[in-house]
Design goal:
Number of domains: 4
Helix content: 40-55%
Distance between the termini: 7 Å
Strand order of the largest sheet: 2-1-3-4-5
CATH topology of the largest domain: Rossmann fold
Largest sheet: 5 strands, parallel
Strand content: 5-15%
Number of helices: 18
Oligomer: single chain
Shape: elongated
Length: 466
């Protein structure tokens, strides 16, 4: 873990030594010192700081001048001013100029430590906000794929890597995880982006029609074939064809697709000649194709032709840290479409969202957000606006009032998650993230406690001292 840095600027060497010694221990951070404004600017040009503490009265460059110089180059910097008791007017002027806070001399160690702790927290929040803004901008380049979790960042890296090639990609994942968005992102970042992207939802097209749709047909090939028809593979020439839910196609279509992948040619129904096609193939499925192969329902040779580059999308329950970002994205997107902007979720509804397992994944979350936008009469979307009617029991927290609305198994799991997060959170906080000591304190074996923590996605890292 990178330790945070504080720069203290004061013309009194003894005070600097005292503050450095006491604050490094209290705040567990690195303290840099400077005896003048010029020295402080030199340090800031070489090192990044989280907080700067500046004395108002210094010979040469004043604290107020230094504040203004710093904010010109570092507008997000968190700056705290030190001033003598009789110079409150100057401190107020500093606040108006962009300082975060001020303290008056003389001060005790506890007061300055508390003030700087708040300043560090503010710096962390600003840093996280800037990071999220950057990540959101990155997400938009992936056409509505939103998320900053490690699993999604890995997906973005894969998309960017495979997009520069023509290699066949197989996207797997549960329904509602966004397989179609990944396919479109690969196409939009590829050299084929100016040519067609043709999506085929395989399960929705009957087998006897799917073949003619994919490969086309010649006039007279069958009854009602009164003219030639170009197939979807030809429509996608020089572009990309996306075969959505390919695990549902018949054995006959599987055989013909295999030939297309091997030979890069198609044969329209009723034609004796083959036609060359230049098409990048991306397929997706929510099925376990390896299991389907064992059952004789999917060709093994076709599977290996498709599965050159696999991309497996995580279900939403495995990246719950992305839920607030997704909610904000859907609120903005659909709020504008439905002419009901500026909607937000109530804290208790967000809590429910974070606890839910989302069996329908991102699509289910999006649909519920749309429902909330439509039915919330005011700006705040509450549980009752999406069909959850809480009991008004003042003795339990608002989100637990919603438990009777849930099926038994979900309600039980919800309560267990709440219990373990509260109980183990307190336990780990008391032991500074020491799992062995936490297990000893609660009467469990260390391995048993680790299994519980893994099940409920609880880690010791946030509770360890920096």
């Amino acid at each position: 873990m990178v330790r945070e840095r504080i720069l203290i600027v004061d013309d009194e060497p003894d005070l600097l030594r005292l503050l450095k010694r006491s604050l490094e221990e209290d705040l567990q951070c690195i303290i840099e010192t400077a005896l003048s404004g010029e020295e402080a600017l030199n340090i800031l040009s070489q090192k990044s700081m989280d907080v700067v503490l500046i004395d108002m009265k210094m010979p040469g460059m004043s604290g107020l001048e230094l504040l203004q110089f710093i904010l010109e180059d570092h507008p997000w910097m968190t700056i705290v001013m030190m001033t003598a008791h009789g110079c409150i007017e100057l401190a107020v002027e500093a606040i108006k100029s962009g300082a975060y806070d001020f303290i008056t001399k003389p001060f005790d160690t506890e007061t300055i430590s508390f003030t700087l702790q708040k300043a560090l927290e503010r710096s962390r929040l600003l840093r996280e906000n800037l990071r999220l803004q950057k990540d959101i901008r990155t997400c938009t380049s992936f056409q509505d794929i939103v998320g900053t979790s490690p699993k999604m960042k890995r997906i973005y890296e894969l998309i960017q890597t495979v997009a520069t090639t023509d290699i066949t990609v197989l996207i797997t994942g549960e329904s509602g995880t966004g397989k179609d968005l990944v396919a479109r992102a690969i196409h939009s970042l590829s050299k084929r982006k100016d040519f067609p992207f043709v999506a085929v939802n395989c399960p929705t097209v009957p087998e006897h029609i799917l073949e003619s749709e994919l490969f086309g047909y010649k006039k007279g090939a069958f009854t009602h074939a009164t003219q030639n028809k170009i197939g979807l593979f030809q429509e996608a020439h020089k572009g990309t064809i996306f075969l959505d839910e390919i695990g549902d196609i018949s054995a006959n279509i599987q055989t013909k697709l295999l030939r297309v992948l091997q030979e890069k040619t198609i044969k329209p129904l009723g034609d004796t000649k083959t036609i060359s096609v230049d098409v990048r193939v991306i397929a997706s499925t929510n099925r376990n194709l390896q299991e389907a192969i064992k059952q004789g329902k999917f060709r093994e040779d076709l599977y290996y032709r498709l599965n050159v580059i696999p991309i497996e999308l995580p279900p939403l329950r495995e990246r719950k840290e992305d839920i607030p970002l997704l909610v904000n994205h859907f609120l903005k997107k659909h709020g504008q479409e439905l002419n009901r902007p500026n909607k937000r979720l109530s804290p208790e509804l967000m809590e429910i969202f974070l606890e839910n397992d989302w069996e329908g994944n991102v699509r289910e979350l999006e649909n519920i957000v749309i429902r909330g936008i439509l039915f919330a009469p005011e700006e705040e979307i509450r549980p009752e606006h999406i069909g959850l009617k809480p009991y008004k029991n003042p003795n339990i927290s608002p989100e637990l009032n919603l438990i009777p609305n849930l099926p038994y198994k979900k309600a039980k799991e919800y309560i267990l998650k709440k219990f373990h997060k509260l109980y183990l959170g307190k336990l780990l906080k008391e032991t500074g993230g020491n799992v062995t000591q936490a297990a000893r304190n609660c009467g469990l074996e260390r391995q048993a406690l680790q299994q519980i923590m893994k099940r409920y996605n609880i880690t010791a890292k946030p509770f360890r001292k920096k």
